[in-house]
Design a protein that fits this description.
Elements: H1 17-33, E1 42-46, H2 54-57, E2 63-68, H3 72-79, E3 84-86, E4 99-105, H4 114-124, E5 125-136, H5 144-148, H6 157-166, E6 170-177, H7 182-195, H8 220-237, E7 247-253
Helix pairs in contact: 1-8
Length: 257
């Protein structure tokens, strides 16, 4: 597919290189495997928070619904005009086969019962529908950032693929993201671990009342450079399954019946 789906609008979080790079990867894979355009589809964002990704996901359906366990960010999402409902990802308040596209973006690593989440997303997806998942990669990269974000685990790509397949999903794509920055990211984590030093994670992207994901800020010049690296990586991701990275991105599809 020659064109790329653009980010529709920008919120503060979108300016951080990590979020911007992740969004471009998500849109590229949804374009490829689900197809661009609304096409009468319904979209579900599981772990929607304050609706930070809903402006991007909304271009893939005529209706988009968010599900969030924490009540605090739901008011922010509603003020932004999004339909975000409070609920448990392991027991979703939706009928079977209710959605064409389901997004599980850096969410399942927070939830103790990951298998229940994969089973529930399968249940609420229509036959032929698509699930997109992003998670952090490699337990040996566990850091203070995982602790403050209340992560339960990190994954490898084969492990994530196996767990999705065990829930009934077909997985045409499961690969790593943040491939080009992996040496820098992994090196910083390992160096800090060796020195016994952790960064000050106070971030302009974090809001206790809205529950924004805590992400270490980057100086403007570095942020611009890393965002450019992210754009180059998406060009690679469209053609190849990247062999390593600090994150994993997967596309799963529910078999047609």
């Amino acid at each position: 597919m020659s064109r790329s789906t653009p980010m529709l609008v920008q919120i503060e979080e979108d300016k951080h290189w990590w979020f911007a790079s992740r969004t471009r990867a998500i849109l590229a894979l949804l374009d490829k495997y689900a197809g661009p355009g609304k096409q009468g589809r319904r979209v579900l964002d599981v772990g929607a928070g304050a609706g930070n990704m809903m402006h991007n996901l909304a271009q893939y359906g005529d209706e988009i619904v968010g599900l969030e366990f924490n009540p605090k960010p739901i008011e922010v999402a509603k003020a932004r005009g999004w339909d975000v409902r409070q609920g448990d990802a392991t027991k979703m308040p939706f009928e079977d086969a209710a959605f064409d596209i389901v997004a599980l973006l850096d969410t399942v690593e927070h939830i103790p019962d990951e298998n229940a989440v994969f089973n529930e997303t399968f249940r609420v997806t229509r036959p032929g529908g698509t699930l997109i998942v992003t998670v952090p990669a490699f337990m040996w990269l566990w850091s203070h950032n995982d602790v403050i974000n209340l992560h339960q685990r990190r994954y490898t790509a084969p492990e994530l693929k196996q767990k999705l397949e065990a829930a009934g999903w077909e997985v045409p794509y499961c690969g790593y993201n943040n491939f080009l920055v992996f040496p820098l990211g992994a090196g910083v984590i390992l160096l800090r671990r060796w020195l016994g030093k952790e960064p000050d994670m106070a971030s302009p992207h974090f809001d206790e009342d809205a529950y924004q994901v805590e992400m270490e800020p980057a100086p403007p010049l570095l942020n611009t450079i890393l965002e450019g690296v992210g754009k180059m990586e998406v060009a690679l991701l469209k053609r190849f399954r990247l062999p390593w990275g600090t994150s994993i991105i997967a596309i799963a599809q529910k078999p047609r019946q």
